Batch of 2 targets.
Target 1
Amino acid sequence: MSKFLPLWPDQASTMSGQVDALYIYLLLVAGVMTALIFVAVTVLAIKYRRVRGREAQQIEGSTILEITWSVIPFFVMLTFFIWGAVLYFKERTPPADSTEIYVVAKQWMWKFEHMEGQREINELHVPTGQNIKLIMTSQDVIHSFFVPAFRLKQDVLPGRYTTLWFKATVPGRYHLFCAEYCGTNHSGMGGEIVVMEPRDYAQWMAGGPAVPLQETGKQLFATLGCATCHRSDVQGRGPNLVGIYNKPVLLEDGRTVTADENYVRESILNPTAKIVNGFKPVMPTFQGIVSEEQLNALVAYVKSLAQPTPGSAGLQNEPAASPAQTQKTQVQ
Ligand SMILES: [Cu+2]
């Protein structure tokens, strides 16, 4: 598209074309509506212009007319809504096979952490043809992750994770903007998404030693003393964390919540916010003790305990949970 119309950004993800199609549809409908109104105004003004000796006929209310001009636009508008909602859900639902990358925003830079351990600042390398899920947080104020070529924008908030996913299609360098005014150097808070052929990407990945993120998390889990309460062999003072990720957790107050990334994060920073049923609120808070990066590593580690991933390289999982163990975590 940008080839014919230089005002249009590059199309570099699977969503780009779909978002543009909706945008063009909106433009077309708006154009047709505008044209209809202009033509009607002109034609009617000429047809019913003042002519000596002729009186206009007033229509005093017509239910059929009223219904027609309400119902037709209603259905036209509804197509905007339905099309938009379908795209929105697609954009908001990362496919299960996505590669995860953690993002930490701060005034005024973007930090990226690959699961394999590679870290980048203001530059993110990704392969084409692979679903990528970004798990993003901010260590200070609200920022917004915006890549026009992918037609994606998502606020990045302090204190919680927001996620985003995309599948890049065309190798190249694409600008990353911060789209939320975040202080003096907001305009300079940018970067580049470097989209590479899978082969080049593998080569890039292989360059330089790196400790996988969940491995860093595993070490932190030991040094911070998490492992003294959370054990996978015997029942400790805290629940067994093997297999909890993305599973329902029964809380003290009778509610059931899903142990997603935000739940694990909150459990570490604010353990008393949600007490697991059958346990005492003895877990200390790690707020101010762990950095955003360390938190990401811990979350990645807890998540890795959930997946029996024999295929993925470099993963060192705990021995797979026996059904009895998993049950212990859930029931209690
Ligand atoms: Cu910013």
Target 2
Amino acid sequence: MKSMHSIDIDTVEMTLDIMKYAIHRISNTAPEMGSPKKEEDLLKLVGETVTEKGIGGEKAFELFKDVFVKATVPADHPRHLAFVPAAPTRAATLFDLVTSASSMHGAYWMTGAGGIFCENQAMKWLVSLTGLPEGAFGVFTSGGTSANLSAMIAAREAWRDQNEENRAFRALLITSNGAHSSVKSMAKVIDADIILVDDDEDDRLTGKWLQKAIDNLSEFDRKRLFAVVATGGTTNAGIIDELDTVADVCEKEQLWFHVDAAYGGGALAAPSVRHLFNGIERADSITIDPHKWMFSPYDCGAVIYKDLELAKNAHSQKGAYLDIFKDEGAQGFNPADYQIQLTRRLRGLPLWFSLAMHGTEKYTEAIERGLSLAINAAKQIEETPHLELVREPSLSCVLFRRKGWTAEDYRDWTYENHKSGFALVTPTKWTKNGESETISRFCFINPDTTEKDIEEILASMK
Ligand SMILES: Cc1ncc(COP(=O)(O)O)c(C=O)c1O
């Protein structure tokens, strides 16, 4: 009897159909700009898809192509400039297929040695961009949230190990107002309290402001304080905290220094802005998301530690069925030891393949392209009388206003542009001196975005 795993003519045909779709999609530089539909509308269109007997691969795939994928927004559309978009290289996306097809378990060197070797080659490059000292290394995670969480756990455990008394306190960490929501929500996961420090006039966390906040802590809170999270490129505005002075304070106060460069980390490879990250080489841990500005498909984050042993103390899992391998080849780097996940996809492989194929210079070029698109957008905004820059671009983020528009006008404009399949540019809020304003925001990642795209989007703000 035919089973789910048997190969027959139908399976071969379905494989060909799927490969044809994948090749077409991967080579498409302007995919249809889909938009979401309500769940009940989707259900009305397709009916139940999971049934006792199955609806068949052909039918399920047809529904995916005709209905479901059209109810998603392709993150790599060149006029998708909202949130932090994505632009995986074709090589990386193709290799994501290979990674799935190869069914590799990436928790342990024993089962994943060859694949982990490749991941580590890519990681070596990432680590070299940070300037961290010899011995620093990292591991690929499912994204920035899990990288931040893994780092915070390592920090909290290191702090607890310093002094038995620390186990009696609920931990406390300091970050800035501009920090990503994942820092705040992962603090909840580890049951730590969090203090948000005001930014300086340039909207950055600085050593001066950090020191002030620490000096204002009660004696009890000072005892509970274990880490500082700075941001290497805020999600909303691309702002990089003053990492060097923050590092000074962390050193003086003996606090774990984490830099969340989930979005901005790509720019470490861009010589034009690398100096803005000075001080990152003094971090205890760093988050970088290759699925943001390093052209990897979802999902791929990375956490890097100055001292891997501290991460291992926090994350290594023990089990009766582990540690049994006699084979010398089985001894090596176990990614499961350095982040929260055990069974894991070798999600660094698409980045490795693309890096191996193209070389790191091409990455630098593509990241510099995002930076120059931001500069170009700023110039076009300044030349348009009814538009105004809210602040100079930081990294690849540009904040600007359409003079005279209300929050409702921005929302309508976003909706119309998206609905017509033209572009996705969403409004954001910018707060200065306690006043919050709705404005517009570009975030450039995709090197296929053109100056003409920017011109046409701005022209639609009439
Ligand atoms: C600075 C920063 N940190 C963390 C995250 C969370 O990353 P992820 O969505 O990959 O979990 C983001 C996402 O935009 C981010 O910009």
